[in-house]
Amino acid sequence: MKKLEKVPFIRMLDTLLNRRLSDSECTAFHASYEEFIDLLHGLTVQSCKSSLDLLHELARLQSRLMRLRERIVEQESPQASLLKSAIQLTNFEIRLVFTRLRYPSIADPVSVEVPKSPLFLSEQFTPTDIMELATALQLSGAIRRIDGTRVDLATLVDVLSGTFNVRINNPEQCRYAVVNRKLRLTRFLDFLRNNLIAYSQR
Predict the structure, then answer these.
(1) Whose CA is closest to 84, among 68, 73, 107?
(2) Which pLDDT band holds residue 192 (cuts at 50, 70, 90)?
(3) Concatenated DSSP letters of 63-131
(4) What is the predicted pLDDT for the residue at 113?
(5) Which positions ≥6 away from 169 have C-beta within 8 Å?
(6) What does the domain layout of the chain look like in residue ranges?
(7) 133-151: pLDDT as tens digits
(8) Residue 150 pairs with which residues in a beta bridge?
(9) In whole angstroms, how far apart are CA 35 and each of 107, 129, 151, 154, 200?
(10) b vs e for 173-189, b when ≥16 Cβ sit within 10 Å of the residue's Cβ?
(11) How far apart are CA 169 and CA 148, in angstroms?
(12) Per-residue CA distances from 140 to 11, 115, 129, 165 (Å)
């Protein structure tokens, strides 16, 4: 896992904080923000670090972002908007880790032995991509329970996680990260769609 305070999004903030961005810089800046969200989410969802180590890393990140906020001149700029979102998400992750420390039984439910699926997510994809798919399926009502009622997000995520051997501990947090993307909200769904179209045109 990269040190979050050293990722491209932070470096770009540092160098472009009070500059008027060109179109290409704005596109690159938003793309780096999307990468930052995925890394931040992966840090708390998939990390093998202890909760205290996570808090230390998140506190360093929070401090770095707060120092950058103090340097902002134009409060209505894209940089200011994305920096504000980054601080909010970081604070959310910190509260989540504190909750895990305070209520360990919530963070570590009793495990039930279930057969492992033979399917795995390819290396270029992340649990966030599965979360994008799960969110779209759940919101659309495309997936139903056996009695015809709509399936809840947690159940749908649990099924998809088991199917693809990925770990998504906090579906609501993951959905929040997905729907708060500022660029390419349907990145994974677009990838699936484009592949289907390419195959149909052979």
Answers:
(1) 68
(2) very high
(3) HHHHHHHHH---TTSHHHHHHHHHHHHHHHHHHHHHHHHH-HHHHSPPP---PPPS----TT--HHHHH
(4) 52
(5) 45, 107
(6) 4-107, 127-200
(7) 999 999 999 998 888 888 8
(8) 144
(9) 25, 12, 30, 24, 31
(10) bbbbbbeebeeeeeebe
(11) 26
(12) 38, 29, 17, 24
User: Encoding tokens for residue 183?
Assistant: 């660029």
Angle at CA of residue 16, ends 34 and 87, nearest 5°: 50
In the block, residue with structure tokens 């998504």: 168
User: Which residue reads 């160098």 in tokens?
Assistant: 15
Helices 78-102 and 51-71: crossing angle, nearest 10°? 160
- Region of 67 (left: φ > 0; alpha: ψ -120 to 50; beta: rest) is alpha
- Alpha-carbon Rg for the chain in angstroms: 19
Q: How far is CA 49 from each of CA 46, 97, 150, rounded to the nearest angstrom?
A: 9, 11, 36
